[in-house]
Design goal:
Elements: E1 5-16, E2 21-23, E3 28-29, E4 33-49, E5 57-60, E6 63-65, H1 68-80, E7 87-94, H2 103-118, H3 125-135, E8 147-151, E9 160-164, E10 171-177, H4 187-194, H5 200-219, H6 223-242, H7 253-267, E11 273-275, E12 282-287, H8 291-301, E13 306-310, E14 317-319
Helix pairs in contact: 2-3, 4-6, 5-6
InterPro entries: GHMP_kinase_C_sf (IPR036554), Mev_decarb (IPR005935), Mev_diP_decarb (IPR029765), MVD-like_N (IPR053859), Mvd1_C (IPR041431), Ribosomal_Su5_D2-typ_SF (IPR020568), Ribsml_uS5_D2-typ_fold_subgr (IPR014721)
GO cellular component, one term: cytosol
Pfam family, one: MDD_C
C-alpha cells in the first residue's frame, strides 16, 4: 500500500436527471440518468492512513469539518475490503459546495479513486462507479469523462455508470453562479419529498423516453434536441418539488430571470436552453459556435453574476 494517494474527479451535470431513490441504503435510483462531465469544476482529494488520529478526519477546503458522511463511506471499504485504521482525507473543491453544481459527485468520485489506490484495489471504472454511487448517487457518473450513463439497475451489481462517448459534438455549458451558499434543502431530503408528488410516476415514465431521445440526439450531434430534451426534463423535475405534499423550491428570483432570458434567446433563434439541478444555479446549454455571443449577452444583462464556460471534461485521474 502506498503512503498517500491523490485523485482528481470532475463534476458532472445531468442532462437527464436523477431525482429519487428506489433503494436508499444502496443509492439505487428510480430512473437511469445521463450527464456531461465538466472540465471547469473538479475536486482533488488526497488520502493517507494516520494512526495518530482517533477517527477518520476530513479537511475540506483547508478547514476540518464533520467527517461523518466520509466515515460512513469509508466503512463500506472496511466491511468489503479490509479493516484498516483511521484515514486522513484532505479535499479541495474547485466548485461551490452544496449549491447545485455537483460538488458531492466530484468529491465522492475523487475519494473513491483515492481509496482504490490507497488499498491497491486496481478497480475497473465500472467497479469504481459502484463504490462512488454509495457515497453520492451522481458520483457514479463522475468516474467517466465526456458523457456518462448511470444505469439505474435493481441491485448493487446492476446499478452502475458507464461511458457514453461522442467527442465530436460541439456542446458548451455556461454556468451561472446565482449563489455559492449551501442550499436550504438537501438533495436527499428533496428527493424524498418529490417522490410523494402525484406526478412522480409520470415523470419517471417520461424520463425513460427522454433518455432514449437524448442518446440519439447526442450521437447525431443535434445540440438543439439535446437542449430541448434536457430543459424539459429539468423543469419537470422542479415541478415535482413544487407539487409535492410539502412544497419547496430551489429557485431564486434570479434563477427565474435567467430562465426567462434564456427562453427569449431561443425564441430569437439562438441555441440556448437551461438545465438546473438541486440548487439555484443555472446551466445554459449552447454550442461552441454561439457560446461567446450568449456569454456576452448574459454578462450585459446580469452584471452581478459570475459566468463560466465549461466543455466536456476528463474522467477520474489517480496519482500513485
Amino acid at each position: 500500500m502506498s503512503d498517500i494517494i491523490t485523485a482528481t474527479a470532475h463534476t458532472n451535470i445531468a442532462l437527464i436527471k436523477y431525482w429519487g431513490k428506489e433503494n436508499v441504503d444502496l443509492n439505487i435510483p428510480t430512473t437511469s440518468s445521463l450527464s456531461m462531465t465538466l472540465d471547469k469544476f473538479y475536486t482533488r482529494t488526497s488520502v493517507e492512513f494516520n494512526n495518530s488520529l482517533a477517527q477518520d478526519t476530513l479537511i475540506l477546503n483547508e478547514k476540518e469539518v464533520d467527517p461523518s458522511r466520509v466515515h460512513r463511506f469509508l466503512n463500506i471499504f472496511r466491511s468489503e475490503v479490509a479493516d484498516f485504521g483511521s484515514v486522513l482525507v484532505i479535499s479541495k473543491n474547485h466548485v461551490p459546495t452544496a449549491a447545485g453544481l455537483a460538488s458531492s459527485a466530484s468529491s465522492f468520485a475523487a475519494l473513491t479513486g483515492a481509496m482504490s489506490g490507497l488499498l491497491d484495489l486496481n478497480l475497473m471504472p465500472t467497479q469504481m462507479s459502484r463504490y462512488a454511487r454509495r457515497g453520492s448517487g451522481s458520483a457514479s457518473r463522475s468516474i467517466f469523462g465526456n458523457f456518462a450513463i448511470w444505469n439505474k439497475g435493481e441491485d448493487e451489481e446492476s446499478s452502475y455508470a458507464e461511458s457514453f462517448l461522442n467527442e465530436d459534438i460541439e456542446l458548451s455549458m455556461i454556468v451561472a453562479e446565482v449563489s455559492a451558499t449551501s442550499k436550504k434543502m438537501s438533495s436527499t431530503k428533496g428527493m424524498q419529498l418529490a417522490q410523494l408528488s402525484p406526478d412522480y410516476a409520470t415523470w419517471v415514465e417520461r424520463s425513460a423516453v427522454q433518455l432514449k431521445e437524448m442518446k440519439a440526439a447526442i450521437l447525431r450531434s443535434d445540440i438543439e434536441r439535446v437542449g430541448l430534451i434536457a430543459q424539459e426534463n429539468s423543469l419537470a423535475m422542479h415541478d415535482l418539488n413544487w407539487n409535492c405534499p410539502e412544497p419547496f423550491d430551489y429557485f431564486t428570483d434570479k434563477t427565474r430571470e435567467l430562465i426567462s432570458f434564456v427562453d427569449n434567446c431561443y425564441k430569437e433563434g439562438l441555441l440556448a436552453f437551461v438545465t438546473i439541478d438541486a440548487g439555484p444555479n443555472v446551466k445554459i446549454i449552447t454550442s461552441r459556435a454561439q457560446e461567446k455571443y450568449i456569454l456576452k449577452r448574459l454578462q450585459d444583462n446580469f452584471p452581478d453574476l459570475q459566468f463560466d464556460i465549461a466543455h466536456a471534461g476528463p474522467g477520474i485521474r489517480v496519482e500513485v
